[in-house]
């Protein structure tokens, strides 16, 4: 992980205090991997309802390292993560503590929270397969396993296999099919790549539009973002969104999550914020702003996300999938996936 990172203190004039006032009583301090545009309206609503100020530090990388350096002196109460890998890393490095909360247990299905109560999902995001509308069309019967089939030779684009989103997918394959079959699958997918893994999920959809490949892996919310970006809408309109493995175990989903830091100086307020983030108001904002799936049952997805159809998600608990992460990274090295 990068030693240097982009760091921004997000100051909301009506609801957020400056970092110099972090010693105040009614506040909570958040280290966030989640971008500020998404969480600003949620935190503003929390402050409106509770009177508790929210101070946010945002970074794309390096927040876990920062927590390690700060130790007991860290001002952070909560960490917002963007995938299961970082949530598990926080636990493995003993940087967080368990939270017992009836509200969290009631709002978040057991599949999407740590059995030891040290991380909790706030949203789910699907690892979809995108296919060219023009050359392949919709693929409703597609399985992830099919991406290793020779019929896709030279037709697949993806970002780095070691990106956390792909590592989580590979971990789910190991949990479902075992190490040996997953290694064979990775070898097959690599053999079918149209180009060396590169870029991000949007770049893969762009490559489909430009004819470099016909299939790509990508999180669902990127399609929503592209459809709302005049510079990228043509890319999005060139693909179909597919939900693999509907006839068997279901489609892999990852999470965004939250954890209470080990030395949280404002623990009570932090737990209040955790509970708020898991409840209806915040869940609805997540769904509308970032095209994610609310983790709380019964909260509606956005109209656009709803238009993609319902799907069955993988029932393997994320905690079990996360245990396979070291094996997934080992297999990626063994098959030299990114080379």
Automatic annotation (TrEMBL):
Keyword annotations from UniProtKB, A to Z: Signal
InterPro entries tied to this protein: Ferric-bd
Pfam family, one: SBP_bac_6
Leader sequence residues: 1-23
PANTHER family hit by this protein: IRON-UTILIZATION PERIPLASMIC PROTEIN (PTHR30006:SF15), THIAMINE-BINDING PERIPLASMIC PROTEIN-RELATED (PTHR30006)
Protein family according to the UniProt entry: Belongs to the bacterial solute-binding protein 1 family.
Official protein name in the record: Fe(3+) ABC transporter substrate-binding protein
